Structures are given as structure tokens and as C-alpha cells.
User: Which sequence fits this backbone?
């Protein structure tokens, strides 16, 4: 009983905090992307295409939470800009998979390094213990979010 | 020396984790907004307009990290939909401030309650101590992010 009370009283504060942190991450991300030839949604898609290897458009559309048609348009643009290519699945030629090209991988590598630099600066005053605890709690949080979003 | 090493080795993991959590929050937020007559950028703007009271377009544009012209369009649409209105500053009639209308406040209240419900579900398995520690660490993180983004 006490457990539930304590938690629920923190939820509104945590919701707001996470909403604002997401906003700040988005802003810093947008600032970094200004120097690269991709938009925010393209960055998010490309990052999943590299992380997960051989995604279909349907799988990618689930990952980024956009409609199938919007995801198709996004991949069209990435392909046109030489960042990814479509490849027929070797086992089932009707299935098309998206694979990253060198240029796409190079851009993501650079952008993520810049994002890590930013986070490194943000966390400069964190002790190693604080960083570790934050990492553990966020891991737990993300696991639950994934479970809920996917069901 | 040890402190810096421990931290920096966690930064790539934390950057990825926070990127994915932001994505999951965005997805769940988008899903909630499907039942309301506002888009994601409109929700973000409206939420700041309510939280901060009497913002100018310039101030709002800084908060949401979008260009002045994009922010003006956004406010136009919110005004057209009866969610906010523009008001001349009493002390300086040349300054226009954005104030929320009842309908706008009611929508944000409902959407934020739904977001809190979602987070409550995500954090069901967190102990009160874990929730508190997470809140403290995120508070620290956000403070730093704000400092860096605003400078």
C-alpha cells in the first residue's frame, strides 16, 4: 500500500521531467543534424536500419512508429540520397529488406559521436555510481516501455 | 582519472538508451493523441503555453526549438481551433502574448493524465526508492541539459 502511494505521487513529476528531457534531447539532436544532409525522422530510421540489420519496411515502420506509407516515402528518400538500398531477401524473393550503404553508416557514426559528446558534457558532474544507477534504471524503464508499446 | 573512465565508458550505452526511450515516449504519446484533435507539435507547444503563462512567440519558439515562422504557423492553427488566443501585453501593447483557452487546457489536462497512466504502468515494478532515485537523477540531467541548450 505504502509502496503504491509513494510511487504514484512521483509519477506526475516524472512524466513532466521525461517529457522535458525528451524535448531537450530532440533539440540538441536537431542542432547536430543541421550540419548533415538528413532530417530528424531520416536519422531515426537510418539508425534503426543500421542497428537491426535487414529490416523490412513493415518492421521499420513498427520501430519508428510511423505509418507504412510514410515509412516507404522515408526509405525512398534515403535510397535516393545514397544512404540505403533495397535488397531482395535471398530465401524469399518477394520480401524486400533495407540495408545501409557506406555513406549512411558514416553519417550515423558521426552524428552519434556528436550526440555522445553532448551527453558526456551533460553528465560531466555525475559520479560513476550515479551514471551506473541511471543506466540501470533507464534499462529497466525501456524494457517495460518496449513490452507495453509492442503489445 | 578513474572517475572519468568509468563514466565515459557508459556514455555510448546511455546515449542509445535515452534515444530509444525518447522514441518510445514519442510513440506512446502519438498513440494517445490519436483520440484528440491536436498533433504532436501542437501538443508540445500547448503544454508550454499552459505551463509558462504569457509566452511570446519568440519565447515559445525557444522552448520548442522550432523556427520563429514555424512557431507562428503553429500558434495560428491553435488559435483557429479555439485552443489559445493572442493577447496584447498590458504594459507594452506592441508585445503579443499567447494565453491558453479553456478548450486547450481541458485537452492538455486529459492528454497528460493519459501519459501519467502510461508511465504509471511502465513503472509498476519500480520500488519507491528506485522511483525516487530515478527522479533525482533525471532532475540533475535535465538541469544540465537546459544549461547547455540555452547557452
Assistant:
Amino acid at each position: 500500500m505504502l509502496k503504491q502511494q509513494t510511487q504514484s505521487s512521483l509519477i506526475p513529476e516524472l512524466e513532466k521531467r521525461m517529457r522535458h528531457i525528451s524535448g531537450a534531447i530532440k533539440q540538441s539532436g536537431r542542432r547536430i543534424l543541421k550540419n548533415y544532409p538528413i532530417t530528424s525522422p531520416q536519422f531515426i530510421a537510418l539508425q534503426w536500419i543500421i542497428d537491426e540489420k535487414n529490416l523490412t519496411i513493415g518492421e521499420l515502420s513498427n520501430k519508428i512508429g510511423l505509418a507504412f506509407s510514410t515509412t516507404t516515402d522515408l526509405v525512398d528518400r534515403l535510397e535516393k540520397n545514397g544512404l540505403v538500398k533495397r535488397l531482395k531477401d535471398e530465401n524469399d524473393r518477394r520480401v524486400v529488406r533495407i540495408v545501409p550503404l557506406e555513406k549512411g553508416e558514416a553519417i550515423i557514426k558521426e552524428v552519434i559521436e556528436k550526440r555522445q559528446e553532448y551527453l558526456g558534457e551533460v553528465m560531466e558532474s555525475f559520479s560513476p555510481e550515479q551514471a551506473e544507477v541511471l543506466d540501470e534504471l533507464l534499462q529497466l524503464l525501456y524494457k517495460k516501455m518496449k513490452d507495453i508499446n509492442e503489445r
Summary: The first strand of chain A starts at residue 84 and ends at 88. The mean pLDDT of chain A is 91.
